[in-house]
Amino acid sequence: MFACHGTTKIFGFPPSEYGPAANALGLVAGWIEFVGGFLIVFGFLTRFAAFICSGEMAVAYFLTAFFPAKTILERLVPIMNHGEYPATLCFIFFFMVFYGSGRWSFDFLLKKQ
After folding, report:
1. Residue 86: which pLDDT band, with cuts at 50, 70 and 90?
2. Within 13 Å, how many C-alpha atoms sit on residue 14's CB side?
3. How many domains does the chain have?
4. Is the dihedral of CA 1, 45, 95, 66 positive or negative?
5. Measured between alpha carbons, how far is 59 from 54 in angstroms, rounded to an integer?
């Protein structure tokens, strides 16, 4: 699903209400989501890709939810500023940085040899 968000930002497919990215920051985010999503799914360079994706989601949270919020309470509670999706993905990817990939990954096959 993370890679699908990237394809929407880069190629405009699948169509969404936002459409393709209109600026450089959106294109960079799209490429991180596209490439990082596939790297994590296939388990190739998983820790590195998860670290980059976690950072991107932290930036997305602060740019789209934290700073636009009006009050201190809205800034501190993700459910109030609609930042639960990027916050959750940030922590999931950060967990993957330390956990790594599983047995059915390319990382595991390369380490085994």
Report:
1. very high
2. 5
3. 1
4. negative
5. 9
Residue 37 tokens read as 């999503």
Q: Where are the beta strands (DSSP E) in the chain?
A: none
What is the pLDDT, as a whole number, of residue 18?
Answer: 81
Three-state SS at 67 = coil
pLDDT for 32-54, tens place per residue? 999 999 999 999 999 999 999 99
Angle at 41 between CA 36 and CA 42, to 5 degrees: 100
Three-state SS for 83?
coil
Rounded Cα–Cα distance for residues 75 and 109 (Å):
43
d(CA 22, CA 30): 11
The whole-angstrom separation of Cα 17 and Cα 8 is: 10
The mean pLDDT of 83-92, rounded to a whole number, is: 96
Residue 112 has pLDDT above 80, yes or no: no
Assess contact for 34 and 3: CB atoms under 8 A: yes
